[in-house]
Automatic annotation (TrEMBL):
Gene3D superfamilies: Aldehyde Dehydrogenase, Chain A, domain 1, Aldehyde Dehydrogenase, Chain A, domain 2. The lineage of its organism: Bacteria, Bacillati, Actinomycetota, Actinomycetes, Streptosporangiales. Residues 15-474 form the Aldehyde dehydrogenase domain. It comes from the Bacteria. SUPFAM superfamilies: ALDH-like. Signal peptide: none annotated. Keywords: Oxidoreductase. The active site is at residue 251. This is Aldehyde dehydrogenase. Belongs to the aldehyde dehydrogenase family. It holds the Pfam family Aldedh. It comes from Nonomuraea composti.
Length: 478
């Protein structure tokens, strides 16, 4: 297997030597072998990246939207050119099955770039509103400035572009801090930006861990922070931003409910694929997955049978193999954490009906696991596990299902399964969550995505995502 060694950083639109000596080593999630290393950015590298972003901002914001949009389109083309390289890097780093990476990663990133290019092309420069006390107000949108974008390792490309695409379209400049586990694909973003002609200083990438992230978040030159990661990390970032009165958007953890109504189709041939995508995709390492399965007591055994069939039909193995549906977890730490939760579930009195063990190594594999007889008060039902572990909770009435679904500190995703989509939609509307799907779940780039409660603040995607990188200014006319 090839190894990727990088010795420079992409800062201010150029490859530059790092200020520090430290490197970040990346291992294959499937084999545990070293697959690459990159320099760890030092605080002085962050200073340089922020200074370059600040210097580039007046020029970039002054470009006509059409000109910025053309750069975004070229950036999308350059990402598409690198699709195979990008998805291979991701699969090797974090264990995402390659077929999933093809769908969730490279293609999604270029789609976001083209979508925001189109939106900004058509956004009027100002909205004029007739007034009550003045003749009229002209409402203008201005780019916020320098954005610090902090990204987790689970879906590293798309979660970078949920920030970079609308921020660049709005006229902001961006410093991205990827996770240490997934830095190799970030270099491909840099190469694509350079090839697309993204002007100097508009985009920089500073690989590093939490401490470097904290340094960037509090940097005096940053105007807004866009964070995706754990609720714990989000709290720390929010506290720092509160002190600085710095705008922040937070996309955090989840523990969503998949509610099967009593008329749902439970045939694995009919819904198996959609159910997998909504509960287990990316080895259970997606924030919006419905990992609490709410099953009507009258059909509890049937729901368990359905889930067992879905797990049986999901080959576990090498993420680079096109037939694999479940790969290894992203790190040894993550594997140990998930295994700890499986032990905890047993100790809490839940019954293992599938999996429950470690998959033979090497690699950070965990068997997809289904727990029956789970009470919603169990820790395995309340805490985000972030692995292929499902808890099946019985309920009696629709009201009961909604009550259990809402009995969580989170509010990010969810699904309702029913033969009657109107009935499902009326149950969905009563679930306290930022997004929810009917008979399946797929985040839609044109619609706002984000959480409530401990799942976050703010929205990405849609025009709302663009607006989150713009300040509003009202100009009153006498
Ligand atoms: P994490 O919070 O440990 O790290 C996320 C990123 O933030 C990393 O780049 C990390 O270095 C950085 N970071 C952590 N603490 C920081 C701090 N105090 N200041 C600045 N930067 C800091 O999360 P993770 O384990 O990498 O990712 C998994 C988590 O992300 C899960 O909880 C998952 O639900 C969440 N997530 C949420 C969404 C969403 O859209 N809501 C999407 C994907 C993942």
């Amino acid at each position: 297997m090839s190894t990727t060694i990088r010795s420079e950083l992409y800062i201010g639109g150029q490859w530059v030597p790092p200020h520090g000596q430290e490197t970040l080593t990346v291992r294959s999630a499937a084999t545990e072998e070293v697959i690459g290393s990159v320099p760890a950015a030092a605080p002085a590298d962050v200073d340089a990246a922020v200074a370059a972003a600040k210097a580039a901002f007046p020029g970039w914001r002054a470009w006509a939207p059409e000109r910025r949009a053309a750069i975004l389109d070229r950036f999308a083309d350059e990402i598409d050119e690198r699709t195979e390289e990008i998805i291979t890097a991701i699969s090797r780093q974090n264990g995402m099955p390659i077929t999933v990476a093809r769908r969730l990663e490279a293609g999604f990133s270029s789609l976001l770039l083209r979508y925001y290019a189109r939106l900004v092309r058509h956004q009027p420069a100002a909205e004029v509103r007739p007034g009550l006390l003045v003749s009229q107000t002209s409402i203008r949108r201005h780019p916020i400035g320098v954005i610090a974008a902090i990204v987790p390792w689970n879906v590293p490309q798309t979660l970078t572009f949920t920030k970079v695409a609308p921020a660049l379209a709005a006229g902001c400049t961006v410093v991205v801090k990827p996770s240490p586990e997934t830095v190799l694909d970030a270099y491909l973003i840099a190469e694509a930006a350079l090839a697309a002609g993204v002007p100097q200083g508009v985009l920089s990438i500073v690989p590093g861990g939490r401490e470097l992230g904290a340094y960037l978040v509090s940097h005096p030159g940053v105007d807004k922070v866009a964070f995706t990661g754990s609720t714990e990390g989000g709290r720390a970032v929010a506290e720092a931003c509160a002190r600085l009165l710095r705008p922040v958007s937070l996309e955090l953890g989840g523990k969503s409910a998949a509610i099967f109504l009593d008329d749902a189709d439970l045939d694995p041939d009919a819904i198996g694929e959609s159910l997998f995508a909504a509960t287990l995709v990316n080895n259970g390492q997606v924030c919006f997955l419905g990992t609490r399965i709410l099953a009507p007591r009258s059909r509890y055994a049937e729901v368990l049978g359905l889930l067992e069939a879905v797990v049986r039909a999901s080959p576990v193995g090498d993420p680079l193999d096109e037939s694999t549906l479940i790969g290894p977890l992203a790190s040894a730490r993550q594997r140990d954490r998930v295994q700890g939760y499986i032990e905890m579930g047993r100790a809490e009195g839940a019954r293992v009906v599938a999996g429950g063990g470690r998959h033979p190594g090497p690699g950070w594999f965990v068997q997809p696991t289904i727990f029956a007889d789970v009470d919603n008060s169990f820790r395995i039902a309340q805490e985000e596990i972030f692995g292929p572990v499902l808890s099946v909770i019985p309920y009696d009435t629709d009201d009961d299902a909604v009550r259990i679904a809402n009995d969580t500190m989170y509010g990010l995703g969810g699904t309702v399964w029913s033969a009657d989509t109107e009935r499902a939609a009326s149950v969905a509307a009563r679930v306290q969550t930022g997004t929810i799907g009917i008979n399946g779940y797929a985040p839609e780039p044109t619609a706002p995505f984000g959480g409530i409660k401990a799942s976050g603040i703010g929205r990405e995607f849609g025009p709302e995502g663009l607006a989150s990188y713009q300040n509003l200014q009202s100009i009153y006319f006498p």
